[in-house]
Design goal:
heterodimer, A: Serine Threonine Protein Phosphatase 5, Tetratricopeptide repeat, 18 helices, elongated, B: 586 residues, Clc chloride channel, CBS-domain
Chain lengths: 388, 586
């Protein structure tokens, strides 16, 4: 058989020229097929988009109506028609979390995370879910990712909010030191002009048990927001045992309209400590003696009340219990009250007795409830550390 | 001219003595021109198949929305009514209009290649398109891949006929279209190429491989243009924790082997029983299957309806408990068996992947509970599980490995994939020696070549048949008288002559040498054309072709063409084949 290919016969026309008509027909068929398929695909895509939107809206409605199960089904259907829509996937994951289906919610968020590992919101959601699952290690990891992650809008506020949540999580985990470090970092990161955020940070420091930093923050905010800052500073000073300053700040807060029971109680207690403190500066000998005498009487009343609650006889001979021994001492000391004004050592020893009474009764009968007893116990607690 | 068809469960062949009537688009070509044209044609086949598969996928989705509603979690009476009514419609179409569209499409394509010279009527593609879309879209437990394969093959076959290709090319064009259809459906060209080579053609050949690759790639490009380039599943973070995790994958391989065995046995048993029932029952069988599947869906397992890709995706993302996954795997085996054996057109690829994914995820989930430190993500197990069932049930081990790699795009799981797939394949092979596709063809009364047998067959080589050369090796530059003297006592009637200058070999009969003119050189009396030479590792079939017209052929060393290793004769070849046949029979 002869081979009419170009190699064997240079004068022959190329193979494709012989099939030119065939190739043209094939191309034409392909073009028509493309056109038809394009039209069909477009039509179907439009229908799919409409269905996806419809089911997404249904999901949003169900989620708002606290029907997470239905919302999950709706969002899943929406994703059937718009498979990679990140918004739908995020809402599905949120619906799963709302339905307490933490495992699946985590699985979904992890999928989203794989695509956007730097996303602040996804990291925060994952952190929350792991926190709910009591898995502190991954929760901490994702909280940190969220704090340093990418937030599309208002990143500073979002990061701060993430850090606040992290601190609250650390507190729930009894990780005070870590929480304190985060809180200090939080307050340092707040812009000076953002009063509300600074107040929030200072309050967080206070709740963590870092009154010193909190007080500094509140003091810095006294001009910007005198009411809230005074209240916060008063509470911080109160925690530090600086009752004099606490009373001043709390009074200022009350003057600025702060009227909550906690502030009132703190103010009363701070003032009570001030009124009972016999070592206050510029106090006359007579006034000091009067305060010691008041403390002595208050301690005796507390001792008797506690013994009554425990159904103990205080005048037993010989005294066998702590309370009885203290009562014997208290009775014996009572005869020296008239010397208080002249004898500073006696004042100290009587205050020491009063403190021991408060401490012992606190052990046997629980912490003091009345303001005078609380003031006396606070003086006992802080001793020379009380601000004067 | 009317076309008489022999209908045998979807396999149609032109009746003896008839030729399909076609309208030629081109004149006959020379061999070289046809070769090049065939390559170009492969691209067009890929484009057409891609377009057809895109439309097919959309048709399934449309049907699903209209038949079952747009919600993912279908509920209510529709679950039962849709597959039942669809079953009735499909049964009518199959019995009355498209009798050749039964079955999955793989065997039909193979039969086109081996029985009907690549002939598949175009109406088969139309029927497959309509019937499969109705069946799968309304919830029958079948997949779109095998029908896509057949649609591609049919389009290619029709095109080949109209373009007046040679018989060889017309026969090979169907697998080219099959690869294109499968590649577009799977969105995975490598897997499609391998499957067609492994399961349809059964051999690697440079001529056909180029065409298959071109068609598969062009169809995937078209499918991605319209449907997007996203993979079939959202692949989770897949990883292998450590070597000890391979124990867990071993368990998965064993589970997959057993599950595939159950699946294959169930299909074999039920199909033979249903085929034996009266003809009129075939109108009702798809509807009854649909009703049962719908009822299963109605009572809490709608996931088993349709192809189930979205649920495979959910399984990969750990969204079912292991108990649920196990239930879904076994219910899918049951529902797919019902759909397939009832004669409803549709594929088994997607159900196989579904079962594998569920089984894999269940194994992973269970192992998470039992040995949490040993197992990685459930998604990895689901992915490997898909390959496991593919290897064990469809008996395509090579395709199964590449499919998982191609779908996941992650080579880090190659070791677990190979381990689990091989284990499942070996279990399935040892417990069910005949692959499911061959069981189905034998139930249809056809004898198609077994690709697995072909792969496993021992290849006889020249070294198995050759014997030592007992005569003297003559040289072309010696005197014929002396050579005749040297050969006088040789037992060889035909003598080998070596031409040193060219390392060429000739042969001469002893009496011809003896009768040569005096003082002549051997060169002057041997035939001018050198003998074809053989090497010890050449397949005996190939050697046989070279033996034609020769008494014996020299077997030489590949490193030294002048060194004779032995000789081969026709008798030796026939004797070796006979011995091998006897050995096989034993």
């Amino acid at each position: 058989m002869s081979d009419p290919s170009p190699n064997s016969n240079p004068t022959a026309s190329p193979w494709w020229r012989k099939d030119a008509v065939t190739i043209a027909v094939l191309v034409a068929i392909a073009a028509v097929g493309f056109g038809a398929t394009y039209a069909i695909t477009k039509s179907y895509t439009r229908r799919e988009d409409a269905l996806a939107r419809r089911w997404f809206q249904a999901g949003e409605t169900d989620l708002a109506a606290q029907k997470p199960k239905q919302a999950i089904a709706d969002f899943r259907t929406a994703l059937l028609y718009s498979r990679d829509n990140p918004k739908y996937r995020l809402r599905l994951a949120e619906a799963l979390a709302a339905d307490n289906d933490l495992q699946q919610a985590i699985a979904y968020f992890l999928n989203l995370w794989e695509e956007q590992p730097g996303s602040g919101s996804i990291n925060l959601e994952l952190a929350r879910l792991y926190a709910r699952q009591h898995q502190p290690r991954p929760a901490a990891q994702y909280f940190n990712n969220a704090i340093y992650g990418i937030w599309p809008s208002d990143p500073i506020a979002q990061r701060r909010q993430a850090r606040i949540e992290y601190i609250q999580f650390l507190l729930r985990q009894n990780q005070q030191a870590e929480a304190q470090a985060e809180a200090v970092a939080l307050s340092a990161a707040v812009p000076p002009t953002d009063t509300q955020s600074r107040l929030q940070a200072a309050n967080l420091l206070l709740s963590i048990g870092d009154p010193e930093h909190a007080l500094a923050e509140f003091n810095a905010l006294l001009k910007a927001d005198p009411a809230q800052a005074s209240a916060g500073a008063g509470k911080a000073a109160f925690q530090l045992g600086w009752f004099h300053s606490a009373a001043e700040h709390l009074r200022a807060a009350t003057d600025h309209g702060i009227d909550d029971p906690e502030t009132k109680t703190m103010l009363a207690r701070a003032e009570a400590v001030g009124a009972l403190d016999p070592w206050q500066r510029h106090l006359s000998e007579a006034d000091a003696a009067k305060r010691v005498s008041t403390a002595y009487v208050q301690a005796g009343a507390r001792l008797q009340q506690c013994a009554s609650d425990l159904q103990q006889q205080l005048d037993a001979k010989p005294p066998s219990t702590d309370l009885q021994r203290l009562y014997a001492e208290w009775t014996k000391t009572g005869s020296q009250l008239h010397r208080l004004a002249r004898d500073p050592d006696l004042r100290d020893s009587m205050m020491d007795l009063a403190f021991r009474v408060e401490n012992t009764t606190a052990v046997h009968c629980g912490p003091p409830t009345s303001t005078p007893d609380w003031a006396l116990a606070s003086l006992a607690k802080y001793g020379a550390g009380v601000e004067r | 001219m009317s076309l008489k068809l022999r209908i045998n469960d979807g396999i149609s062949t032109p009746a003896a003595g008839t030729t399909p009537k076609v309208i030629p688009l081109a004149a006959p070509r020379s061999a070289g021109a046809e070769e090049r044209f065939f390559l170009l044609l492969s691209i067009f086949i890929g484009i057409y198949a891609g377009l057809a598969v895109v439309c097919f996928r959309l048709a399934i989705e449309w049907t699903r929305v209209y038949a079952l509603g747009s919600a993912l979690a279908v509920s209510g009476r529709r679950l039962i009514l849709a597959p039942t009514i669809a079953g009735l419609v499909v049964a009518f179409l199959v019995m009355k209009v498209f009798p050749a569209v039964r079955g999955s499409g793989v065997n039909q394509t193979k039969s086109a290649l081996y029985i009907s010279n690549g002939y598949i009527p175009l109406r088969t593609a139309i029927g497959k398109f309509i019937c499969s879309a109705i069946a799968i879209g309304s919830g029958h437990s079948l997949g779109p891949e095998d029908p896509s394969l057949q649609i591609g093959a049919t389009l290619a076959s029709a095109l080949g006929r109209r373009l007046r290709l040679s018989r060889e090319k017309t026969r090979l064009i169907a697998p080219v279209g099959a690869a294109a259809g499968l590649a577009a459906a799977f969105n995975a060209p490598i897997s499609a190429v391998l499957f067609v080579i492994e399961e349809v053609i059964g051999r690697w050949s440079a001529g056909i491989l180029g065409s298959i690759v071109l068609s598969a790639v062009s169809s995937v490009v078209v499918a991605r243009f319209f449907l997007g380039a996203e993979p079939m599943f959202r692949i989770p973070n897949v990883s292998l924790i450590g070597a000890e995790e391979l124990l867990a994958y071993t368990a998965l391989g064993i589970a997959g082997g057993v599950a595939s065995l159950v699946f294959a046995k169930l299909i074999t048993w039920l199909r033979s029983h249903l085929k034996a029932m009266p003809l009129w029952t075939q109108y009702a069988q798809p509807a009854i299957a649909g009703a049962i599947i719908g009822t299963i869906g109605y009572f809490g397992f709608p996931q088993v309806m349709g192809a189930g890709y979205e649920y495979m995706d959910q399984a990969m993302h750990n969204q079912f408990t292991w108990q649920m996954l196990l239930a879904l795997a076994f219910l899918k085996i049951a529902t797919t068996t019902l759909s397939f054996t009832s004669g409803t057109p549709g594929g088994m690829f997607a159900p196989t992947l579904f079962i594998g994914a569920m089984l894999g995820a269940a194994t992973g989930g269970l192992e998470h509970i039992l040995v949490p430190h040993l197992t990685g993500s459930v998604g990895t197990y689901a992915l490997v599980g898909m390959g496991v069932l593919f290897a064990a049930f469809l008996r395509a081990p090579l395709t199964s490995v590449f499919m998982v790699l191609e779908v996941s795009g992650n080579y880090s799981i190659i070791i677990p994939v190979i381990l689990a797939n091989t284990l499942a394949y070996l279990i399935s092979r040892s417990l069910q020696p005949t692959p499911i596709f061959e069981v189905l063809t034998s139930q249809d009364g056809l004898i198609l070549p077994s690709m697995e047998e072909q792969r496993d067959a021992d290849v006889l080589r020249v070294e198995d048949a050759m014997r030592a050369y007992a005569g003297p090796t003559l040289e072309t530059d010696e005197l014929a008288d002396i050579a005749a003297e040297r050969a006088a006592k040789s037992p060889e009637p035909v003598l080998l002559v070596r031409r040193r200058a060219y390392n060429a070999w000739h042969s001469i009969r002893r009496e011809n040498l003896r009768n040569s003119p005096p003082h002549s050189l051997v060169e002057q009396v041997v035939p001018e054309d050198p003998l074809p030479v053989l090497f010890p590792d050449v397949a005996l079939e190939a050697a046989l072709r070279k033996l034609h017209g020769h008494d014996l052929l020299p077997v030489i060393n590949r490193a030294d063409a002048g060194k004779l290793e032995g000789v081969l004769t026709l008798e030796l070849v026939l004797q070796t084949f006979a011995e091998a046949t006897e050995k096989n029979l034993e």
